[in-house]
Amino acid sequence: MFQFFDLVLGSPIGAFIVSVVRDTMYAAMIIADCDECGFEDLGKLLIGGIILAVLVGIAASLLWRKAKEKNARASSFVSIKSDARD
């Protein structure tokens, strides 16, 4: 698993993904930088982020399921026979 991770990060696509993540983190730090924010606000941000992540996950899974149902070929019966012949 580590070798696969190393290969992905060493590829141009992996380097691009890492740079995008790094730039996004820097942008989030710059946007979130405020003098009046303290440790009390971090809990609210954490809970808000978790709630947002759960909602995005639910929405994505619902969209994926609807797309899967739309493309599914409905068969009228279930066969227990094997198609493989010896």
Write up what this structure looks like.
With about 90 residues, the protein is mainly alpha-helical. It folds into two domains: about 1-35; about 35-70. It has three helices and no strands. The chain has helices at about 1-10, 10-30, 40-70. α1 (about 1-10) crosses α2.
Structural Rg: 23 Å
Total number of helices? 3
- The overall pLDDT average reads 78
Largest pleated sheet? none
Unreliable stretches covering 5 or more consecutive residues? none
In total, the number of domains comes to: 2
Strand content: under 5%
Termini separation (Å)?
37 Å
Helix content: over 70%
Tally of strands: 0
Order of H and E elements: HHH
Helix/sheet category: mainly alpha
- The coarse overall form would be flat
Q: What does the secondary structure layout of this molecule look like, with pairings?
A:
Layout: H1 2-10, H2 12-32, H3 39-71
Give a quick precis of the structure.
This protein is mainly α. It is built from three helices and no strands. The chain folds into two domains: 33 residues; 34 residues.
